[in-house]
Amino acid sequence: MTLHLQERWMSRLLCIFTQQEQHSHLKAASRMSVPDYMQCAEDHQTVLVVVQPVGIVPEDQFFKIYKRIASVRQLSIRDSQRLLFIRYRHHYLPENNEWGDFQTHRKVVGLIAITTCSSSRDWPQTADRFHSQKDVYTSTLYDSRLLVFGLQGEVAEQSRTDMVFYPSFEECSDVERRVEDFVESIFIVLESKRLDRATDKSGDKISLLCVPFEKKDFVGLDTDSRHYKKRCQGRMRKHVGDLCLQAGMLQDALVHYHMAVELLRAVNDFLWLGGALEGLCSASVIFHYPGGTAGKAAGSKPSVSQPADAGKRHRPGALTASGISADTSAEIGRAKNCLSPEDIIEKYKEAISYYGKYKNAGVIELEACVKAVRVLAIQKRAREASEFLQNAVYINLGQLSEEEKIQRYSILSELYELIGFHRKSAFFKRVAAMQCVAPTIPEPGWRACYKLLLETLPGYSLSLDPKDFTKGTHRGWAAVQMRLLHELVYASRRMGNPALSVRHLSFLLQTMLDFLSDQEKKEVTQSLENYTSKCPGGMEVITLPDGLTLPPVPFTKLPIVRSVKLLNLPISLQPHKVKGLLEGNLSNASPFIYSPILMQSRGEERCKKIDFQWVQGDVCEVQLMVYNPMPYELRVENMGLLTSGVEFESLPAALFLPAESGLYPVTLVGVPRTAGNITVNGYHTSVFGVSSDCLLEDLANVKSSGCLVEVIPSLPRLQLSTSLPRSTHSSQPMSKEELPSSVSVQLFNGESQQLTITLENIGSIDIETLELTSKINSSKEKVFGEFLSWDLEEAVCQLPLKPGQSITLSVRIRVKLDFSGQENLLQDLNDDGISVTGWPISSPLRQVLKPRPESKPLGSESGKAEYSHVKTLEAVLKFKYSGGPGKVEGYYRELSLGVHVNVEPSLFFTRVSTLPATSTRQCHLLLDIFNPTEHELTVSAKNNQDLVLHASECQRMAIQVDRFDFESLPQAEQQTLHFSSPKQLQEERQLAHGCQISSKLGICWSIPSLKRHGEASVEGVLNQLVLEHLQLAPLQWDVLLSGKPCDSDVVAECTVGDAVTLEDYQNGVQNYDMDEAVTFIGSNIFYIDTVKAKDSCVCEGALLFLYTGDFYLNIRFQDDSSRRGLPLAWFTLPSVHIRALDTPLQAGA
Asked: What region holds the Trs120/TRAPPC9 third Ig-like domain (predicted)?
């Protein structure tokens, strides 16, 4: 709603209630112009005393004395049990006093004047003013008093009954007692008048009591008619009933009212009949509800004590100090003329209907409606009370002043509130507010309008606290609430208070956002921006002059936050606790297995505290999922975090959210400057010029995983750079988290690569410790040897590393996977017509593969993919470093570098076998080597000729090697500790043997065209049988002819007829018989019992060759025990070749 629409609506609202007041205008002399909206039924038993200042009296002093005077509200009359009730007014119109004959409680019977006089010279003038004041009410006054303050001397010492002198306003301790004396004098006059009227026996000479507007109507009437006389009698009876009620004689008053009703009904004197009925209702209300209907106590305690014999002079209908006779049941029996609660309302209705016949009795009618409503409120009959109020709304009081209209609507509002009609009450309060700024008022009262509008808020289920709108569903009519808020905005602007306008407009936008149309949202936000351009909105509490406070209005819906999540630091910056210290910090340790109290406290802590830490001095992040409900782009400025617990520097951000954006992630950052526990309480924003502090506890339907996190002391920060290119491959280490950085390299199997890492301290804390570890990710591939190796000693010597400094570290990447040929490769080779397993092994011949068929070329993509696929190795290098205050507390950081290696096959060993050599300590290792690359490959080994393989070519290489002595076997205890099964132990042994063999072979490969080279390993290729052939037997046999060693490939020469000495070392040998060409000198059979470890046994014999020729000596071994089952390789004896010559040779000894 724009401001012009607000003004137009205010004007229309006033027209509803002002049109009826523009039809008639009567002179004030004939009617009461100002109703007393505070009247209630029990006021009929009071006497009216006016307290007014005379001359110049300070306002505060006047009301101070007035309050003391008004404290004497009831007085117990001496020598009786009756009470006199007094009603005080400090302002009373004389024309209302003229209605005193109609209802005596409207008659001013007492006047108390308050004046100041400092000297006797001013006294005559002061006295004249007092007498002039008395003249205004002289026709009805019973008695008067003048309280003079400040006058001393002869005048003050004079003894006068109607004047009391006090030195000052502070020295007047007996004011209350003086007032009690004054009230007693009024009662005396009242009682005398009651007796005079009640005992009047003149009959036909009863004067006619009239209301002011009737005097001209009775001119020229026949005063001797029976009708006239009954009218006079009925009105007098009614008048006497009023006097009895004021004098405390309730029963007598009821009797007189009933008689008056009968007399006045007979002559159709409706105005006075209504008065008699109202008097009857008032007396009945006083009887039934001694506590009163105005919501207050019956009055103050009596100031004059009752005499001891007061009960003896009890009169019918007399009331005690509590407002009802001591014997209630007896009194009810006597009060047979008292109306029942239901009849009271019926008589009120009848009286009001009679008042309605007279336009000049509008005030009387209105006040009767008000009294009936108060009675119905006590009876809890709200619906009937609303009918009386509805009638009061349309009572025409003539031309009322604007102030009187405001008072009328305000009282109607209070009465509706009294009966529980809150929305109707708010409506009339709102009408009163609009009346304060009516166009006819020269100076509109915008402050009064604003104050009344604030009072209407509860009736429309509206409060100024935005927290009330976050609980449950919306209460009240949103359209009316929005209109009321617009009126508050407009009124506060006209008051000249733009801060109030901004606050109310912000409240409207925050609480009524769901009910605003797109156009209304645009208009409200434009108005808000116009206001905030002159007076920005904030979070301060606005206190109004009357003490009312307006709480701040944070824009929790601009934008709407759906979730809040505290983010952990990046992986490279996350702190870690030393494991040994973690165990020592269990503060909640308990000797009991289960403690429900302890578990509950721990559960609450888990619900609040997050299981990661932030670091002092590092940028921390909080992610919010926000939504823009506006139909246009929302600009959010200065958005940052609200925290408590530690010193925190928030780094604000500016956002531009698209129209109705849906969930949109927003990250707010900040830096904790101290260590401790920090709580994220919310966030702050600036939207449309209004700064808001939005607390998470005030947000509805917000998901949060916790808002409390620990901030540990400062730690250094390390940054690394590498010589290898960064990897685009997404590594997934064991922790399932993304690595901050990784490198990628492509190597052939067996190739090595140097990785240079530069570490730079980019923080502000010295790096004092540095450790490096590596871990290979889970892979199906078996890696032989060290995949990553380094020397950290040189880098550690450069610590501590100052901020800005850097160190360099070299890491060697060495890939050595299984070189064995796979089953699919062997199958492909067999498909080509080559029997791999059937190759002859008697000699180390080189074989070349035949060309593959066209239908399945070996170099094709499909064929190559089967055996030449690229394997992947992944590992993580972890740099563990610490320093500064964080190190003292036992924290460190880890910086990880992922290493991604694509391993291409370099060569395959498709088949491995062995051939014996001429020496028992040597053998031939046969390797069938396949080149799976697309390039020419050269293979070399120690002391062997290079082998050149073309692409997709397979050849055999024979390598003569010394047999191996595998003595480095795990001990029995270590075997149980490290290996879980015999199979695993066997595999580990094979790998250890293969590693030893590979180091001796020294097989290398190179690709000249690519300038690439590497190693080839037979680890994983050698089976158990091949290993047995390569193993040096524990039993070694040496044969010496004439003292010279004799191997299989050596021909020993001797002369026929000479004896040849044969020596056999280590373990026994049995000689078999030769034929007649050779003669043994001595025994040819030897028995060996036991050969201890590292020991030897010698068997010596001689041969005599009788003929020339080549002889082969076959030495055989026979084991007597068949249960030992020793390997045959342990007993392999060399074959001896001897050539006997004719020429005489010198025999060796």
From this structure: 916-1030
Measured at the alpha carbon of residue 905, what is the angle toward residues 899 and 909, in degrees to the nearest 5? 130
CA dihedral of 875, 879, 880, 884, whole degrees rounded to 10: -160
* pLDDT value for 675: 93
Please tell me the distance from the alpha carbon of residue 909 to that of residue 994, in angstroms, as a whole number: 14
Tokens of 1109: 């020729």
Q: Is residue 597 part of a domain?
A: no
The total domain count for the chain is 6
| Block residue for tokens 């909105």 | 537
Q: Which residue has the higher pLDDT, 1029 or 20?
A: 1029
Tracing tokens 């069938």 back to the chain, one arrives at 928
Beta bridge partners of 59: none
Contact residues for 241 (Cβ-Cβ < 8 A; gap 6+): 252, 253, 254, 255, 256, 257, 260, 276, 279, 280, 283
Same domain, 1049 and 1014: no
The answer to whether 166 touches 146, Cβ cutoff 8 Å, is no
The reported pLDDT for the residue numbered 472 is 73
Determine the 3-state secondary structure of 834 from DSSP. coil
What span, in angstroms and rounded, lies between the C-alpha atoms of 1029 and 1121? 24
Q: What is the CATH number of the domain that holds 47?
A: 3.40.50.300
Return d(Cα 1021, Cα 925) in angstroms, integer. Answer: 12
The half-sphere exposure of 566 on its side-chain side, counting CA atoms within 13 A, is 26
Residue with tokens 């870690």: 576
Peptide bond connecting 803 to the previous residue in cis, omega within 30 degrees of 0: no
Counting other chains too, the contacts that 491-497 makes at CB distance below 8 Å and 24 or more residues apart are 491/433, 491/437, 491/446, 491/449, 491/450, 491/453, 492/450, 493/3, 493/531, 494/437, 494/444, 494/446, 495/446, 495/447, 495/450
In tens, the pLDDT along 389-418 reads 999 888 888 778 888 888 899 999 999 999
- Return the ∠ at Cα 28 (arms to 22 and 31), rounded to 5°: 90
Whether 1069 is in a domain gets the answer: yes
Q: With 80 as the cut, is the pLDDT of residue 126 above it?
A: yes
Residue 989 and residue 1118 in one domain: no
User: Helix 59-70 and helix 175-198: axis angle, to 10°?
Assistant: 60
* % of the chain with per-residue pLDDT over 70: 77
What H or E segment, with its residue span, contains residue 912? strand 908-916
How far CA 795 is from CA of 754, 786, 801, 896, in Å, comes to 17, 21, 10, 17
Q: How far apart are CA 48 and CA 205, in angstroms?
A: 29
Other beta carbons within 10 Å of 167: 12
Task: Using the predicted structure, report yes or no on whether residue 199 has a pLDDT greater than 60.
Answer: yes
Higher pLDDT, 115 or 838: 115
In this predicted model, which residue has the larger pLDDT, 1035 or 896? Answer: 896
The arithmetic mean of pLDDT across residues 499-507, rounded, is 94
Say how far apart CA 878 and CA 893 lie, in whole Å: 10
**CA separation for the pair 127, 142 (Å, rounded):** 19
pLDDT at 419: 93
Q: Sorting pLDDT into bands at 50, 70 and 90, what band is 201?
A: low
Q: Quick one: CA dihedral 21, 26, 31, 34, positive or negative?
A: positive
Query: The domain that contains 1048 carries what CATH number?
Result: 2.60.40
CA dist., res. 925 & res. 911, Å (int):
11
CA 337 to chain CA centroid, Å, is 69
Residue 438 lies in a domain: no
Q: Are residues 1070 and 1015 in the same domain?
A: no
Q: Two tokens at 622?
A: 């909080």
SS3 label, residue 906:
coil
Residue 1096 is predicted with a pLDDT of 77
Q: Are residues 472 and 535 both part of a single domain?
A: yes
Structural domain of residue 75, as residue ranges? 41-195
**Same structural domain for residues 948 and 1092?**
no
Same domain for 126 and 98 = yes
